[in-house]
Every structure is written in structure tokens, then in C-alpha cells.
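so my prof wants the structure for this chain in the C-alpha cells format not the other one, which i didnt know existed until like an hour ago. anyway here's the sequence
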Amino acid sequence: MAENPISDRGLAVFAFAIYHQLESGSRVTQVVREDGAGHHADPEAIQELQRLGLVHVDDNRIAFTDQGEAILDRAIAEMRRAAAARPQSTESGAPERRDAYSHGETKPIRSGYT
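here's what i got, hopefully its the right format
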């Protein structure tokens, strides 16, 4: 598998757009840098996405380029495909869980519950 050239912070900008697109049902081609409610896009992430040619910035707007929009479309399609797939079960019968930082390796989830 190829290493992802986009950092997690860069991916967070895409995740923000994906959330709004799925929540609203309308295509999202741009997001705001700062929403006035304390949420803002990481400046380094914005610079990274600009260097990769995935966004253009205009004042408080981050607009996705055609290539950026194609990534949004693929990410949403993959999320839908993953949601429709049947989860693999572990020996216990529980669905296998993955830690956000494991990069594909399964780790046990520790909680206060037994």
C-alpha cells in the first residue's frame, strides 16, 4: 500500500467537508477557515494542501480544486462502501476494532467496563 502523502491534519480538512456534505445532502466544494464558533483549519494543513494543488484559499474560504474534489468524492464513496461491507468478526464473535493510530494493526480497546 502506498504511503499517504497527505498528513492527518490535511485529511481533517477533507473530513470537515465530508461531514458537511453528508449532513446537508449538498455537494461541498469549499469550507471556511474559521467558523466563528472556535473551529478553524490548521494553517499548516492548508499550506500542505495548497502545495499539493488540492485547495485554493481566498480570504476565509478554502476551495477544493478539481483534484481535491475528486479526493472528496472517492473518500465518500469508500466510506459508503466500508459501511455497506460486513465487518469481520474476531474469535469472540465481536467485530474487530481498530485504533485510530494503529494504521491497520488491531489493538485491544481498554475501557473502564468489564
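also thought this was worth mentioning. The mean pLDDT is 82.
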